Amino acid sequence: MKKTKKFSHLSKSERHEIAILRRKKYRLGDIAKTLKRSVSAIYDELARNETRGRYGPIKAHHQAYVRRKYSKYQGMKIVKNPGLREFVEKELLNDQSPTNISGRIKKHEKCLLPVSKNIVYKYIKSPYGRRIEHHRNKQKNRRRRRRRGSSKKLQGRTFIDKRPQYINERQRIGDAEADFLVSGRSGKGIILNITGRKSRAAFLEQIIAVTIDNVHLSFKRIKKRFPELKTITTDNDLPLERHKELEKLLKIKIYFCHQYHSWEKGTVENSNKYVRRDIPKGSDISKYSKRFTRFLERKLQRRYMNCLDHFTPAEMLENHRKRKKRRSVKEK
User: Fold this and answer.
1) Average pLDDT of the chain?
2) Please, which residues have CB within 8 angstroms of residue 200's CB and are 6 or more apart in sequence?
3) Cα-based distances in Å from 300 to 58, 195, 295, 307, 312
4) From CA 192, how far away is CA 189, in angstroms rounded?
5) What proportions of the chain, in percent to the nearest 5, are helix, strand and coil?
6) Which whole number is the average pLDDT over 70-74?
7) In this structure, what DSSP letter does residue 305 have?
8) β-strand pairing of 202-207 with 231-234
9) How many whole angstroms separate alpha carbon 308 and alpha carbon 319?
10) What one GO molecular function would you report for this record (predicted)?
């Protein structure tokens, strides 16, 4: 049985050889062959340590040593701080990303020691973060999405091209995107997801018996929780066959994406991705309780988001409503 060669860092002598061959205008492939290294290893070495086309082997070796030494400490920064560790672990288990956790700590959790996203990643990869890594790995199995177009065209649609510029630019709270998450072939039921374009607040409703009347009822329930709702951008799904009736019922305007152009409603598509971590594709949605669906809604609304300056969608909505209330009091 052939043994696989273990990875080893570049030695000081190898770095001197790289410098000599680089001065002689050797190609990366030839340098790699001479040192019996991969081309990517040579490329990475030069990308990290070359300055204005010049490569200094002594400086490069020292920088590599410092990087390795600091790298070993990075994850320990979280381990040695119990309050920070508790916060990071809790938010990772709530499916917050290392980038958003880092941003949230720097901007809003001033009592905690600031850490970069790389430090959070180092902690996950350390022996102390194995439980977190296992949780994150469970979320990574994905299937390719099937196209979900309808053979029957909806009549009287207003397409996204007619959508006003202020909606495209996310200028106000109340403009949203909608989508349906469907069960697997043997399952039944769907989940309606309405996500605000500016606030990123997601509202979910589970529909077991999928009829147009039940779909309209679910929209109505979400409108009660999200009274700011003014417009919806959505797909050409059959449950929206009576979309003109729905517009009158909710007193809103509905815009439709072009067929198979799901990227035209990227906000709700991104929101769906997080729902699918807990309700994987192919699942029978009817097996999940309405209470669980509402739990997911709260979870989505408590996500720290880089685009919201690391506030949560719930905080964005709450701040908007407080400002609106103050304005109405002043006007009186």
Assistant:
1) 88
2) 267, 271, 305, 307, 308, 313, 316
3) 50, 10, 9, 14, 9
4) 10
5) 55, 10, 35
6) 59
7) B
8) unpaired
9) 12
10) nucleic acid binding
331/237 Cα distance (integer angstroms): 43
Token pair, residue 11, equals 């030695």
Q: What are residue 187's DSSP bridge partners?
A: none
Residue 305 backbone phi and psi in degrees, to 5: -130, 130
Find out whether 174 and 231 touch, Cβ atoms under 8 Å.
yes
263-307 per-position pLDDT tens digit: 999 999 999 999 999 999 999 999 999 999 999 999 999 999 999
Every domain of the chain and the residues it spans: 12-55, 72-138, 160-327
91 Cβ neighbours under 8 A, 6+ residues apart? 101, 104, 304
Residue type at position 27: R
Tell me whether residue 99 is exposed, middle or buried, using C-beta atoms within 10 angstroms of its C-beta: 0 to 12, 13 to 18, 19 or more. Answer: middle
- CB contact burial 198-232 (16+ within 10 A = b; e otherwise): bbbbbbbbbbeebeeebbbebbeebbeebebbebb
**What is the widest separation between alpha-carbon atoms in the chain?**
84
Return the CATH superfamily for domain 160-327: Ribonuclease H-like superfamily/Ribonuclease H (3.30.420.10)
The dihedral formed by the CA atoms of 262, 197, 175 and 234, expressed in degrees to the nearest 10: 10
Q: Which two tokens stand for residue 12?
A: 């000081």
Q: What is the pTM of this model?
A: 0.71
What 8-state DSSP symbol labels residue 311?
B
Structure tokens that stand for 123 in this block: 């902690």
Q: Are 178 and 233 in contact (CB under 8 A)?
A: yes
Nearest to 293 by CA among 164, 203, 159, 197: 203
For residues 39 and 1, is the Cβ–Cβ distance under 8 A? no
Q: Give the C-alpha separation, 28 to 247, whole Å.
A: 62
Structure token digits, residue 15:
């770095």
Q: How many CB atoms lie within 10 A of CB 273?
A: 11
Q: How far apart are CA 112 and CA 52, in angstroms?
A: 39
329: left (phi over 0), alpha (psi -120 to 50) or beta: alpha
